[in-house]
Structures are given as C-alpha cells and as structure tokens.
Design brief:
It is a single chain. It contains 27 helices and 20 strands. It is mainly alpha-helical. A three-stranded mixed beta sheet has the order 10-12-13. Helix 6 (243-258) packs antiparallel against helix 7 (277-296). It is elongated. 51% of the residues are buried.
Length: 805
C-alpha cells in the first residue's frame, strides 16, 4: 500500500456561477463509502470552500448532504493554497466521440474532401501567423510612440529643473505618468477580464494540457491583454511585451479556427469542421508558437516552445503547420515594421526584441570558458530560485489579502509609482560616479543631470528606457560604458521590482525583466573577469551579459531546449549554441533542486488539475480501483427523458460523462451494469434541445435527423440544462442513446496501476476512463482530478484536498 500523506476532503458547495457554466464534480458521490483498497477520510461535517480563485476566506454556511440532513461548514484555515485541487476546472474533450454520426460523416468524406480539409488547416495556420504578426506590430508601434512622448516630457522637465531647481516636481511628474498608465491597464484587467493578467503562459499550458480555463481564449481577453500590456510597458513597470504575445497568439488561433466569434455573436459559417476540442487544441499550439516567433523573431524556437512548454500531443504534420504559422508571423511583423520605418523591403526587424549580432572576435568563446559558463548557470539557477521563492510568498500574500479588484488596482498603481521613484533615486544618487562620454552610438534620451558637458548619466540609460532597449545596450555597449556600482545597484533594485511586479493585476511578461536582470549581473561578472585576468580580451562584458541573461531567464522559467534555440536565433550566432545550452541546463538543475519553475508554481497556486509528463513516483502501489470515483451515475440505451433531466439538473452531482450500460443486465454489487458506451453531458443537452425522443420519431411529427453540425453549432458554449423546457408529457418519453453514445470508450480493469492509467489518460488526452470488472461491468470512473490529486511531496505520495475555489 502506498504511503498517502494527506487524505482527500470533498466540498459539496453548489457553484455560484452562471447556469450552464457550473463546475462539475467528479463522477462519484461525495459521500461514497471508502473503497476497499484505499481508506479515504470523507468527512460529512468538515467541509470548506474558497469564495474565488484568489480568496482563502472560509465561510460558515449550511449545506444538505445526500440524505437531506443538514451539515455545518466548519471554518478552517488553509495555509497553503497549492495543497488544494480545484473542482471548478472542467476538462477538454481531446478524444473524439466515435459515435454513429461521427463514423457516418467520416465515411462520407471523399479523398478530395480530405485534401480540402488539409488545405483549410494550412490556410487557418497562415491567417494565425498574419494576425499574430499584425497584433505584435500594433503593440510595438503604440508602445514606441507613447514611451517616446513620456520620456520626452520627463526629460525636458528634468533639464529645466536642473537649471532652475525643483527636481522633486520632475519626480512627481514621472511617478504620476507611470501610475496613470498602469492604472488604466490594471482597471481593464481587474474589472473587465481578470484572466488577462500576467503573461498568460501558465493558462495556455493548462489549456493545451486539457484543462478548460474559463475565458482564456475569448476575444475580450485578447483586447484586454493587448491594451493592458501597452499600458504596463509604457507605465514603466518591470515587465515585457513578449510573454503576452504567446497568449495573444493562442486567442487569435482559437478564434480564427472556429470561424465565428461568440463575443461578437457573429458566425461566418466557415471552418465548421474544426469546431471541436481536438482541432482547436492543435491551432492553439500554432498560435502560441506564432506568438513566440513574433516576439523574438525565432520561428524554430516558437515550434520548440510549443512542444516543450505547451502541447501535450504532437504529430509530424502538426509540426509543419506550426512552423508555417511561425514563419508567417515573423515575416508579417518584419514586413509591416519595414514599411513603418520607411524602409520597405528591409526585413531587419524579425521580432519585437532584437538582441543584435554578436560577430566580433572579442565575443567568441574558448574551450576553457565552459567551466565559467557553468558557474554563470549556477548563479542564474540560485538567483532564479530566490526570485521564485520570493514571488511565491508574495503571491500567497496577495491570495489572502489583495483579492478584491479595487485593492489590486491600488497595488498596481503603487508599484508603478514606486518603480518611477526608485528609478529616479538611483539615477540621481550616483550621477557623480558614472558619467560617461556621449559616443558614436546614439542614445535617444541621454540625461546629463549634473554630469559635465558632453557626458551623460549611464544609470539613466538602464532605467530611462524601455526594457528591450536596455537589454540591447547591455549586450553591445563597449567595455567601460557601465560602472560596476551602477550595474550592481541596478541588478539589486530591478530584481526586487520585477519580483514585486509579476503577479500584479496587469498584463505583463517575465521574459524581458529576467533577461535584463541577468544581462546586468552578467556584464558585472564579465567586468570582474577582465579585471582579474592578465589577458582580458577574452572576458568581453557583452558576451557574459548574454550568458547571464540566459542563466537568469532559465533559472526562473526552467526552459532548456526552446530557450536555447530562441537565444541562438535572436542573436544570429549559432556558435553560442553550446555555451547557452550549458548555461540553461545548469540553471535548470540548480533551480529545480531548490524550487519549481515560476509557471509551475502559479499553476499549483491556482489549484489547477494539471497532469505532468510522468505519473508521480511511488504510485505503482495504487490501482485504478483505489483512485476511481464511485458509485457511477449510468444511463441505459433507452432512457426516460425525466430521469435524464433530473440527473443533469442535480447541482450536487454535476457530472459530465455518463457510462451507458446494458438495460438487460442486473446490477451486482459494485457492478452497475455491463458497459456499452459513454455519452457526454453536452450531447444530452443538444438531444434534449432538439427533442430527439423515440415517441416523436415514431409519430407523424416531422423531425429532421440530427447531424454533427447541430452539435458543432452549440460548441463550445452549450446551453445550460435550466434553459431547456421539458413538459410533463415529454418527461415520460424515451430517448434512444445508441446512435449518439461513443460505443468504444476507453476502459481499464480495476487492477490496472495508477501509472498505467495516467499514461493512457495523458497520451490520448482523455476526459474519462471507465473502470470495469472481469465481466465488463462498470464499477467506477477515473477523471483528470482523480489522477492530478496525487503527487510526490518530501518523499511521500500525497493526496491533495479538493474544494470549490
């Protein structure tokens, strides 16, 4: 028997959401008695709930158990939100329901029809690349225009203040402008679409893993994301606009592939065949890759990012289509920006950020530098783990105390003002230590402050600029351009500002802040090497700035393969492939020893039932019978409409999948009937909506035959059961489920091990696995939450608590 540290606790609170978007419980009674193999503590008196995702306040309410007896909620403090598994997340159906309607449609498709569908997939991927590139252009141009105007106003004010006194007014102006922009972006996120907060990469990872995250690929989310990231970057926060491009690309892909917009209530009657989770998932993978490609000008890196961080399921043709979307995305961005910069045809802007070319002899590396690169990677891993730990503690604080939208806006405005204040103080405090001569490389807004004529304040070039331009400056400015004190203070201050900023109610990315922090301390490390080395030509500060940037980003997000290729593509120097890979692998190994990556931390804090690549260790002792949910609510092939309506309307057992059993088989013990198929809640709702009853079909009433198009028209927002009117006479009618159920659902015997069920579930993208006995009788069902609640913690197999969050 496996050592299960924590026992499961179920919540029976009804969902407070809109009808039809309620949260499904697992397909098993919350008050079911423990299974023979695994003793579960299913307390009838101690329930808890969390009011919303970012709230851990616990209320004392009353609830009704299955027998109608009232039970009292006991207020219980939950100290760590990641020890919960949320019941509010539904799963996506990545496995096609091969019922009779599906098989008949597939048989009707001719060879030409198959080729037409394939061409449509390529067309959709092309559109995904084009629109993702255009969105990236829009963000880049608007940010550049607004940031230029802001810095121009502030610089003119500072110059006047130096001559006449009153620098405090310049500080107030700078902080006010930052706070104003940040407030606009934060209000949009906090009050209009909260899922648009952050980079969106954790949410897209969850979606591609098979978790239905509410509103994650809506048009409204895209609009808030775009306007929010513009406000955040122009507001001077320690954020980047590259991370949100991945989420934006995914939303564009989800919208285009469906040929309609639920937000705009428009249906263009195209791409109707792709209106199912399986096809939509593949296009979202292409959208995420196109977003990476537009952000970094790295189409191959985009494909690998989608493979490494996003897609759970992969095939060869999908790889080609995703690569095509990525190439179109970076080409569109390149072409449009060349026209904007009045250089048509000059395709020298492949991405939103351009690292520049590392081609001089000074930036080449030698074999004896590889151990130094390993040290750089270890430093990045340690600093990344520290960043993640601090951000984790800060996020837990926000979950407890900053969960109201108004408080979230206030915090974001405060961070914007503090960022401007810190920047101003740092620029002003060390102006006497770091005055650099104005060289050939033009600086757009050089601040002289109290420096002599012909010199500028070097600290200002790091703070008084967009993060992307600051990164490029750290990579390519000549040796001696930065004072070590400047780099040290900038690294320290920007590290804590970026850590405080990530997790705010604003649209933001962590890629560029991580690169900027790493570039600063990496350049400082390069200066140190050049000072201690007799021959300092090999220790180029720009080279070590690049390695430090890679190490810091790898230490925070823990990407290896895709990040290596992204950096190599962005720098245009393939010779850096090996050192960058060494740095990233070292950073990941060291960081993983301390704490998980930032995206994984936030996924756990949101209590998402995310399935990793492999089942938890030490889980072989658990069998499917021990982890399944039971008893199972089943239907017969010929079922009364009244019973179907009652079961679908039961909010205490809001199941999404129902095994169909043989009506001639009598239940025996745990066996509720011989398995004949599986039917989904969404299918039953469509059947009820169209009144597909046996009595109507046999009568003289004219009724058109239901087709797959009727199910696709209702996808993905199927109507709630409460909106379907069923008269008393219709309740006595019968519904034949034979034609609509999946007659070949995946099932395993109760003795199958948990790892075997996990791999089957993970590899095929399943939503339900039916557990059967030796005579093919249904004894239970396994869903995503049954598998996700087990994890290894401190050497023991832990079973997470479940609650409505």
């Amino acid at each position: 028997m496996a050592n299960v540290a924590n026992k499961v606790s179920w919540s029976s609170k009804d969902d407070e959401g809109r009808p039809g978007e309620s949260t499904p419980l697992l397909n098993g009674s919350p008050s079911a008695s423990p299974s023979p193999g695994l003793s579960r503590q299913l307390s009838q008196n101690n329930f808890f709930r969390i009011d919303r995702l970012t709230t851990v306040n616990l209320d004392d309410d009353t609830a009704q158990d299955q027998d109608g007896d009232s039970s009292t909620y006991v207020s219980k403090e939950i100290t760590h939100n990641e020890n919960l598994l949320s019941l509010k997340y539904e799963s996506l159906d990545y496995d096609n329901s091969e019922n009779q309607l599906f098989m008949e449609e597939e048989r009707r498709i001719s060879k030409i029809g198959v080729h037409v569908l394939e061409i449509k997939r390529w067309v959709v991927c092309g559109f995904i690349g084009i629109f993702t590139g255009l969105i990236a252009c829009f963000i880049d141009i608007v940010v550049e225009k607004l940031a230029d105007e802001k810095y121009k106003v502030v610089k003119e004010n500072i110059d006047k203040a130096i001559e006449g006194g009153g620098l405090s007014i310049s500080l107030v102006l700078w902080a006010s402008m930052n706070a104003g922009f940040v407030m606009i972006g934060s209000i949009l996120v906090a009050f209009v679409e909260p899922v648009a907060a952050g980079s969106g990469i954790p949410q897209i990872k969850c979606y591609l893993n098979g978790v239905k995250v509410p509103h994650v690929v809506r048009l409204k989310t895209l609009m808030v994301k775009v306007l929010g990231v513009i406000s955040s970057v122009v507001g001077g926060l320690a954020v980047g606009k590259e991370g949100p491009m991945i989420h934006s690309g995914a939303v564009i892909a989800a919208g285009i592939s469906q040929g309609r917009s639920s937000t705009l209530k428009r249906d263009f009657k195209i791409f109707e065949y792709f209106r199912r989770d399986t096809e939509k998932r593949d296009f979202v993978s292409a959208g995420a890759a196109a977003g990476v490609s537009a952000a970094f000008g790295a189409p191959v890196g985009g494909v690998l990012f989608s493979l490494e961080e996003g897609a759970s399921f992969w095939n060869q043709m999908l790889t080609w289509r995703i690569f095509f979307a990525s190439m179109i995305s970076t080409f569109t961005l390149n072409f449009v920006l060349s026209i904007y910069h009045q250089k048509p045809g000059d395709l020298s802007n492949p991405g939103l950020i351009n690292f520049g070319r590392f081609q001089s002899e000074a930036v080449q590396y030698n074999w004896y530098e590889i151990p130094i690169f390993i040290i750089v990677g270890a430093i990045g891993g340690i600093l990344g783990a520290l960043f993640n730990r601090l951000n984790y503690c800060l996020t837990m604080f926000r979950i407890r105390y900053v969960h109201r939208p108004c408080l979230q806006v206030i915090e974001a405005v405060l961070v914007g003002a503090v960022t401007a204040t810190v920047s101003f103080i740092m620029i002003y405090a060390i102006y006497t230590y770091d005055c650099q001569p104005v060289g050939e490389d033009p600086i757009k807004y050089p601040l002289q402050l109290f420096c002599p004529d012909g010199e500028y304040n070097a600290m200002a070039t790091a703070f008084f600029n967009t993060p992307e331009k600051s990164v490029q400056s750290l990579f390519h400015d000549s040796p001696g351009s930065y004072n070590p004190l400047t780099l040290g203070l900038f690294t320290l201050s920007y590290f804590f500002l970026a850590c405080w900023t990530y997790g705010l109610a604003v649209s933001s990315g962590i890629f560029i802040p991580s690169l900027l922090i790493g570039a600063a301390w990496g350049r400082l490390f390069g200066i140190f090497l050049s000072n201690v080395s007799a021959v300092s030509t090999w220790a180029d500060p720009g080279k070590y700035a690049l390695m430090g940037a890679a190490a810091q980003l790898g230490g925070i997000v823990r990407m290896t393969l895709s990040l290596t290729v992204i950096i190599v593509e962005a720098t245009g120097n393939v010779t850096y492939g090996l050192p960058v890979m060494v740095v990233l692998m070292t950073a990941k190994i060291v960081g993983d020893f301390c704490i998980e990556g930032l995206y994984d931390i936030h996924i756990k804090l949101q209590s998402v039932p995310f399935l990793g690549w492999e089942p938890p260790e030490k889980s072989h002792a658990l069998t499917a019978r021990e982890v399944m949910s039971y008893p199972v609510t089943c239907f017969k092939k010929l079922e009364k409409v009244g019973r179907i309506v009652d079961i679908l309307s039961d909010t205490s057992a809001n199941h999404n999948g129902f095994p169909v059993v043989d009506e001639n088989h009598e239940p025996d013990g745990d066996n509720v009937g011989r398995l004949c198929g599986l039917i989904l809640r969404s299918q039953l709702i469509v059947l009820l909506k169209h009144k597909v009853f046996v009595e109507r079909a046999s009568s003289n009433l004219a009724q058109k035959k239901l087709q797959l198009k009727d199910f696709r028209d209702a996808y993905p927002r199927f109507p709630p059961i409460q909106s379907i009117h069923v008269s008393q006479d219709e309740r006595n009618c019968t519904m034949d489920l034979t034609e609509f159920m999946n007659p070949t659902p995946y099932s395993v015997p109760g003795e199958a091990s948990l790892p075997r069920v996990f791999r089957l579930f993970r590899a095929l993208g399943l939503r339900h696995v039916v557990i059967c006995d030796g005579s093919n009788g249904v004894i239970g069902i396994v869903t995503r939450k049954d598998l996700a609640r087990y994890r290894l913690h401190k050497g023991q197999l832990e079973e997470l608590e479940m609650a409505h969050t």
